[in-house]
Write a structure and sequence with these properties.
Layout lengths: L10 H5 L3 H14 L12 H4 L4 H4 L19 H5 L1 H8 L4 H24 L4 H13 L4 H5 L4 H23 L2 H15 L8 H12 L9 H21 L11 H20 L16 H17 L4 H24 L11 H12 L13 H21 L6 H11 L4 H13 L3 H14 L4 H13 L3 H14 L4 H13 L3 H14 L4 H13 L3 H14 L4 H13 L3 H14 L4 H13 L3 H14 L6 H4 L8
Helix pairs in contact: 2-7, 2-8, 6-7, 7-8, 7-10, 8-17, 8-18, 10-11, 12-16, 14-15, 14-16, 16-17, 19-20, 20-21, 20-22, 21-22, 22-23, 23-24, 24-25, 24-26, 25-26, 26-27, 26-28, 27-28, 28-29, 28-30, 29-30, 30-31
């Protein structure tokens, strides 16, 4: 493997010592600095980390990652990175985006060194790393927080290769152990890492890396055992899988071929980008033309290193294969662009192997450099324009509808974003469109039911929650919410039946206990309600609502010390939750501690100036405002 082309730029100026990583660092941060002002998205953020934000704030929970799954995934290394984000940000999106940006820059710098391990010159490796850091196909990976999975996998994959290179060259088993550890961490990051041993074998066979490039049989055994142990844990702990449909294989095959073409084309030049790309909303012909043109260019110019080119092709195709197959049989049918992060590395390896010998000598330096600057400028401009689609939930969701108008999930996301803004009538309109396109998604019915409930349309809410349950009989959130609606409608027995079902199937469901307690409280069964709230706290001591509700019962029972303890706990868990402040003010009022009560009232008025205290204290027993 050789790449003998000399750098047209002085090594002393750009490529000596620490300078290449410095340039990549500065370039990457400049390109994506604006993402630090972005918020969360309506796609995957909630169930990956936002719903468990307090859990991630407790570093003591970290070991639990290795013996459990989260949101249907066994990816402890990914979830491990959410702990510092949650702890240092206290719920802010800034640390999450900063971590993503740092990972992308680190991945690009590591790529520079990885390419040199393939005997690619410093200059070519630097150019490829610049293209990688600025390629718009990576916008989703960087600007969308859940996209960090592929950055972590890229870092660990390249590290595993580098350690294996060093082991082959030195026969030092410390490097082999480091290779195994990085391979294990890669498996614990994303399932696609299972292809790493095959890529290592491919690299040896394609490139003849060195005279010592021989893999001993024991290495195959170690790889196999390590992969087998991981696979056992992964299958044992993951109970939820993507909804797949093998009943229409010809259609799935068509989607697979279409996606393979437009994903390959996006690697060459990213046009028709989308947050939720689908085969129905992405034209194939422009990308087919790109692929054909690229092949013609390669055939015309030739290759300076055929073996390296074939390895890059093998890398690109291998990392592209698994997600493309999976998305083609997944009923949702989305071909996320962040999944192209690793295939792009293989594509750049291919590009670095193209010969320039047919270009006239006078243009051999000027033409490639000019083309590089033009491409980097175009890529940078597109990043600046397109990354803003990830700025907040509503902008994100509106972009989904605009880019993928034939996709049910686009309207579901827009409905979700609108409902979080309190625009429930508009949300319902989008949920209607989503259901019309795909009437088998339980969560869309659940979300529409929640909007109906908030608008006071209880009968419609019941129908939607029941439909969600019909599609997914263990949809505990739908049971919980339907029980709440039944309680509001005065149908206490039906409400209790829903809560009891959830508890029978999931005995540690804190929300079901809390809701059942509210049901008992509504009919005056205070001891039973007290037990339910205590059970909710037992299974989740971060549930501020349960502390507040139990505090209200203690207040009603005139057990003021216990009441104030629970209100204090609820306040500590959520300073923006008004109810425990109101409850605590009532306790202070009863204890004749008017100064303390007034402090709580002042804080309440600060958060909600239009709130009338008459509702809580009555006109004749009103704390002064």
């Amino acid at each position: 493997m050789s790449n003998s082309s000399n750098s047209p730029i002085s090594d002393n100026i750009f490529l000596s010592s620490f300078k290449p990583p410095l340039w990549l660092f500065l370039f990457g941060f400049t390109l994506y600095l604006q993402t630090l002002n972005y918020g969360f998205s309506p796609l995957d953020d909630n169930y990956l980390y936002l719903d468990k934000l307090r859990w991630f704030m407790n570093i003591g929970n970290l070991p639990e990652l290795f013996v459990t799954s989260i949101a249907g995934f066994y990816r402890p290394v990914l979830f491990m990175t959410f702990f510092p984000d949650a702890i240092f940000g206290s719920g802010s999106a800034l640390p999450f985006h900063l971590t993503n940006l740092c990972l992308h820059v680190a991945s690009s710098i590591l790529l520079y060194y990885f390419l040199q391990q393939l005997n690619i010159t410093k200059f070519v490796a630097f150019c490829m790393s610049l293209l990688f850091i600025a390629h718009p196909i990576n916008i989703q990976t960087v600007a969308w927080i859940p996209g960090r999975n592929d950055m972590l996998l890229a870092i660990l994959t390249m590290s595993a290769f580098i350690f294996f290179f060093k082991y082959l060259k030195t026969q030092n088993y410390i490097f082999f152990i480091a290779h195994l550890l990085t391979y294990l961490f890669a498996l614990l990051t994303k399932e696609n890492a299972i292809v790493i041993p095959f890529l290592v074998i491919g690299l040896i066979n394609f490139t003849k890396l060195s005279s010592q490039a021989k893999i001993q049989k024991s290495i195959y055994v170690i790889w196999g055992v390590l992969t087998g142990v991981w696979f056992f844990f992964q299958r044992s702990l993951v109970n939820e899988y993507a909804v797949t449909d093998f009943s229409h294989l010809p259609t799935s095959f068509y989607h697979f071929i279409s996606a393979w073409i437009f994903n390959s084309g996006k690697l060459i030049f990213p046009v028709y980008q989308a947050i939720l790309p689908t085969s129905s909303d992405t034209p194939v012909l422009p990308f087919l033309i790109m692929v054909i043109v690229f092949i013609m260019v390669v055939l015309y110019l030739g290759l300076s290193n055929k073996r390296l080119f074939y390895f890059g092709l093998f890398w690109c195709g291998t990392f592209l294969l698994i997600p493309t197959i999976w998305s083609s049989i997944d009923k949702i049918g989305e071909y996320y662009e962040h999944r192209l992060y690793l295939p792009l590395i293989g594509f750049l390896i291919m590009v670095s192997s193209i010969s320039l010998q047919k270009i006239p000598v006078k243009l051999r330096t000027l033409l490639p450099l000019s083309l590089l600057f033009i491409v980097l400028f175009a890529f940078s401009y597109k990043i600046d324009r397109r990354s803003h689609l990830y700025v907040d939930k509503l902008t994100f969701a509106e972009a989904c509808v605009k880019e993928s108008p034939n996709h049910a999930r686009s309207y579901k996301l827009l409905g979700t974003a609108l409902s979080e803004l309190g625009r429930h009538s508009e949300a319902i309109q989008n949920f209607d469109i989503s259901i019309e396109m795909y009437p088998k998604d339980e969560d869309t019915y659940y979300n529409r039911g929640s909007s109906y409930f908030i608008l006071g349309n209880f009968s419609e809410a019941i129908q939607d929650y029941s439909r969600a349950i019909q599609i997914k009989p263990v949809h505990f959130a739908a049971y919980n919410n339907r029980g709440i609606v039944y309680g509001n409608m005065g149908e206490i027995e039906k409400a209790e039946s829903d809560f009891n079902f959830v508890i029978s199937q999931d005995p540690t469901n804190d929300k079901a206990y809390n809701n059942k307690g509210l049901n008992y409280y509504r009919i005056g069964k205070l001891p039973e309600a007290l037990d339910c709230f205590s059970n909710a706290i037992k299974f989740n001591d971060n549930l501020e609502y349960a502390f507040n509700n139990r505090g209200q019962i203690y207040l009603d029972l005139d057990q003021l010390e216990l009441a104030i303890n629970d209100f204090n706990q609820a306040i500590q868990l959520n300073f923006s939750y008004l109810s425990p402040f109101i409850g605590r003010a009532k306790v202070y009022k009863k204890l004749k501690l008017d100064d303390l009560a007034q402090k709580d009232i002042d804080y309440i008025k600060q958060l909600q100036p239009d709130l009338s205290l008459d509702v809580f204290f009555g006109p004749d027993d009103k704390i002064k405002e």
